[in-house]
Design goal:
The protein has two domains: 3-194, no CATH class; 201-310, no CATH class. It is 41% helix and 14% strand. The protein is built from 13 helices and eight strands. The strands form two sheets. Strands 1-2-3-4-5-6 form a six-stranded antiparallel beta sheet, with no helix packed on it. The structure holds heme C. Heme C is lined by residues 50-51, 223, 226-229, 233, 235, 237, 244-246, 260-262, 272, 274, 285, 287, 305, 308-309, 311-313, 324-326, 328, 331, 333.
Length: 354
């Protein structure tokens, strides 16, 4: 595609998305039912990748709205618990862009950069591409920080369609639609920054020494047959219950493959962080594959974080990402009764997983 046209098209959307926020909000205040209709496609594709549950629990908002609200929560300095409207969300995006100090034309230049991505699957490709756009922003001679680039690019990622989608969007006339794929990519690259994830697991442990379990402090439990991981997993929880740490264990030697962290924010939403075996922050986590082919196959697959977390740790009705301990039954995760009990330390509490 001619880059000039691309930029102009982005500029048009940018005008719609930013310059005329209030007008835009007024025309885009669609009733929930029609919004639901317009994003059914997104919902279906999101549901393919992660187990979902209880179809009778019809959600109150669309998947796209739920993601947009979560991105806005990520960008908000002050916690709020009341209802969010589409206009609230868009004004958070607009404010974040202003706070970043990056002029809109610059942000759009980075966002419209055409970068090839070799990753497998649509979500991973989108993440790979967005990561390079954020890198381009950060390596600009003006020295923009990661946080500033994330603030400036949240609106574009959430609202501007991929060039390949533009045709459909224009013909459907629903410019206000939030873009689930763009927001998933934004979350992979930006959630750890905007949520203040400590730089390493060692840093996290300086604040939260979860392994030194005490009667009135952290608690510890072994899920020897975790249904989320289809294998052993050790869970720690803070005394207040608002921080949880989950170590995925390697069945062969019980070493820690990765450490997942959930921190409840003051507004009730959750932050999802992952560290690899060396304690470095990563944006993927290991899960059992959906189907293991008859001849065998990989024992685990890596899925993007926080997107994969959000596929299970959410309220089925309100679609808020605030469920710290999801029900494996409600998520219809396969039983793990056939697995052996591994990795139990002397006297360690054992959870009922089946
Ligand atoms: C397939 C669904 C699923 C996905 C995806 C998932 N979880 Fe979970 N999570 C669960 C279930 C179910 C539990 C309850 C314990 C168990 O079965 O292992 C849980 C428990 C936890 C706990 C312990 C909570 C507590 O209060 O004790 C943490 C921490 C956690 N998950 C973090 C994450 C993070 C971070 C991600 C993303 C990288 C993630 N989870 C992705 C289903 C999931």
């Amino acid at each position: 595609m001619n880059p000039k046209i691309t930029i102009r098209r982005f500029a048009v959307f940018s005008f719609a998305a930013f310059a005329a926020f209030s007008v835009f909000a007024a025309v885009s205040c669609t009733p929930l039912t029609s919004m639901w209709k317009s994003t059914q496609g997104n919902r279906a594709s999101a549901e393919k990748s992660v187990p979902q549950s209880v179809s009778s629990e019809r959600p109150l908002v669309s998947n796209a709205f739920a993601y947009a609200r979560y991105v806005a929560i990520n960008l908000s300095d002050t916690p709020r618990k009341d209802e969010w409207t589409e206009a609230d969300i868009k004004s958070v995006f607009q404010k974040a862009a202003q706070q970043s100090g990056i002029p809109e034309s610059e942000a759009l230049k980075f966002y419209s950069m055409q970068v090839p991505s070799q990753a497998e699957g649509r979500t991973n490709q989108r993440i790979g591409k967005f990561r390079q756009q954020v890198r381009a922003c950060m390596s600009d001679s003006k020295g923009w920080s990661h946080g500033a680039c994330c603030r400036a690019l949240a609106g574009p990622a959430a609202l501007i369609p991929e060039p390949s989608e533009a045709q459909t969007l224009e013909s459907s006339g629903s410019e206000s639609r939030f873009r689930v794929q763009g927001m998933k990519a934004w979350l992979s690259v930006c959630h750890s920054v905007t949520s203040g994830q400590p730089a390493t697991l060692a840093d996290f442990r300086k604040f939260h020494d979860y392994q030194s379990v005490q009667p009135d402090g952290w608690t510890k439990k072994l899920h020897a047959r975790s249904r989320a991981k289809r294998g052993p997993r050790r869970l720690y929880r803070s005394a207040e219950g608002d921080i949880a740490v989950a170590e995925t264990l390697v069945p062969e030697d019980c070493s820690v493959l990765e450490t997942e962290v959930i921190v409840r924010r003051p507004d009730g939403a959750l932050n999802f962080w992952v560290y690899d075996a060396r304690g470095q922050p990563v944006d993927t986590s290991h899960f059992p594959p959906a189907d293991v082919p008859a001849g065998g196959g990989p024992k685990t697959v890596e899925k993007p974080s926080p997107d994969s977390c959000m596929g299970c740790h959410y309220d089925l009705k309100t679609r808020q990402f605030n469920v710290q301990f999801p029900s494996a039954d409600e998520l219809k995760l396969p039983s793990t009764k056939d697995l052996p009990v591994l990795c139990r330390q002397t006297g360690e509490s054992l959870a009922e997983d089946n």
